[in-house]
Amino acid sequence: MDDLQKYLDPSFKEHMSLTETAKLNLVLLEEDRIRSAVDSLQTVKDLIQYLDSEHIRAVPSLCPKLYEVSQTQLKLQENAAELTTETRQLIANYDNLIMSLSKQFILWDSMLTEIEKGKIKKKKIPSS
């Protein structure tokens, strides 16, 4: 319990803090990242005029128009989904029709073949 209280004591962190050399080494290790963050912040500072522009401030007045456009887009999506479903159904019907016609043509072809075989056999038989 004594160890637990020692670790939970807020002053424990102060006793366990890094030496000045270790702190300096940490800052030097992170120097590139710190410089990158500074450069990024400078870029934001330079571009803040564009973020505060009149066009950006006018965005709330565009919300109703944006809502209307999004509703139109949703309706178009629904229409496209319905059209896709109808198109797939038409293609399936077309495939079924072509399959039926193909089967019918095959049947007629076999019937004609049988008829032609019968006529050929009859012609080859000599009549006496």
From TrEMBL:
GO biological-process terms attached to the record: cytoskeleton-dependent cytokinesis
Pfam families: Dynactin_p22
Cellular-component GO terms for this entry: dynactin complex
Signal sequence coordinates: none
PANTHER family, per database record: DYNACTIN SUBUNIT 3
Record's protein name: Dynactin subunit 3
